[in-house]
Amino acid sequence: MIRYVPKDIAKDVTAFVEKSCKDSSVHTDQASGRVAIATTSSKDMDALSKKFGAKGLRF
Length: 59
What we know:
Layout: E1 2-5, H1 10-20, E2 24-28, E3 35-39, H2 42-52
Antiparallel strand pairs: 1-3, 2-3
């Protein structure tokens, strides 16, 4: 599953994924600056939703 991240929380989400999510990765499009999360782990999706759900990140 791939989800784009709202720009206002992109930096925080990127740091969280790199530190805490072993089965997920972050991609930053150099041209547009958009940040996307790619994951197949339901555990990682649950952790991201729990931490950033109130800020607009949904899976």
